[in-house]
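Notes continue from the previous slide.

Worked example: a multi-chain complex. Inputs as given:
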Amino acid sequence: MFDLFRIALRGLLHRKKRSWLTIIGVLIGITAVVALISLGISMQLAVERSFEDLGYDVMMIFPGEVGGGFGGPTSLTASFEIDLDALSRVEGVGEIGLISYQSVYVKADGNEGFLDALGVSGNIFDFFKLEVEGRRFGPDERDAVVLGSEVAKELGLGVGDILEIEGHPFTVVGIYSAEDRLNVRGESILMPLAAMRELLGIKGVSMVLVRARPGYDVGEVAKRVEEFLYKSRGRRDLSVQTMEEIHEAVQRALGILRAFLGGIAGISLLVGGIGVMNTMYTAVLERTREIGVMKAVGARNSQILLIFLLESGLMGLVGGALGTVIGALLNVVAVIAARASLGAKVLEFGIPWWLVVGALGFSFLVGCLAGLLPARSAAKLDPVEALRYE
Amino acid sequence: MKDGVIVALEGVWKVYRMGRRRRIEVQALRGVDLEVARGEFLAVMGPSGSGKSTLLHLMGCLDRPTEGRVLFEGEDIARLRPAALARIRNRKVGFVFQSFNLSPNLSALENVELPMVFAGVPRRERLRRARELLSRVGLSERERHLPSELSGGEQQRVAIARALANSPELLLADEPTGNLDSETGKGILSLISEANREGVAVVVVTHDPEVAACAGRHLRIRDGRIVEVTDV
């Protein structure tokens, strides 16, 4: 087998230029496959991580119907009021976090303008596992804010500085880093919900986060919460969604995206495979006489078949190996570029071992399959006719 | 069949169908009877197109007869499967062609190794034997050279070494000196004769009287029929 492999290798090296051109065809296909699949994996990993940060035992309550109309949930700035005491008595409901999205007028250090502010209950830091440089604000504090790192950078503020929100002074007590976060953006101002309500004269919230008590099935608790909301409000104007449901929806979308990307990559790989087939047919034609001689000196049909299959498989494998490396590099470039331009860790490096092994195996297989028909025609050549071939 | 016969042809016809629809019939051999004894040196002569090469192909199990029987060591080759024929060609027959027919991408040494690769001879043994044969044909210094780096005579010597690699019983040579000058041709002829002296039966197709002069028997063929057999 090794000797036949050596003969196959010599065949490839003998027509270097053509072999390389064919290999490049496979290389492009495998590069596309690896790059696009790994991109899909990168996105998935990033999404998974952000869901894991929030935890699968969490559900969200927000205005609007899920999947009931255009755009799903209505605007996040729409606010609603809710009986928190009654909600906390629903069986299985644990910690409750509140968020109110508002746009506020901010002045700081000569800068002024509208910015997004989140009035939040104190436990939101835990819900989102936010790491704060400085400190969080306490439940009764009225004049403290925690800034997203991006906002802090933009406004040139640090811990201990003062900024004015809607004409009132607030002290920056902490700065949270949103780097490597997908679910929290670094461009927001976090302020105590009570302070925001006082400041803007609002009552409601934009979103309620509910954590199921340990030992309770989050899906069951979500159903009970939904029922409670319907009973207490008399209408279904609020949606309850568990992280698991959202996760599933995102997974489905990513799955479709992956299949789509994989399909495109598959087409380029198919073209590469046809290139291998073409090269191998040419090789068989060119070496007809040589095949005749090999048969004359005693090569069995199966040995001829194997030599040509190894040749085409080898082209596939070399193209696959180079394509995998380039595809992986493209993934790294894409991840770095995405992080640089979007700040957060919107992509994770996504080159699992199975993708590498799979790509190599698949490229060898594509090479062998593409070479199968040419190799068969080589093996079946009539030795006398092959020897006469000019 | 006699014990001393390596290959025998009994009433052999070989008809080729040529052309795009294979309608043109060419009768390459028409009822040939022939026996080649072990260790003999037979020269086959005749004008081109008379069926000499076809005769050689049939004796070397490269082809099967259209009619009649070809018996290689008593076995009817028409009844053998392609793999069994390949095995005979590999172990019992050596071919030498007019145009050398070396694999262009293999070195001289690797070309000689080739039949042994197909026979599954271990590498160490193969290399030993290939080097021994190359030294016998005087090409020890050229073992790493590709065919394109060798002269015609050198290529033919490599081809003879290759033909002898698996110690065949029968050496079939199709105009082995046809593409060589007479001096080089003599060298080739002496190598073939040497193999014959060591017991290998040799069948040479040739136009060259010098080659024919080495043979113990001459066979003249015309229009697919043996017209004359002469013991020398």
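Summary box: Chain B has one domain: 41-62+81-231. The helical segments of chain B are 52-59, 82-91, 108-119, 123-136, 152-163, 182-197, 209-214.
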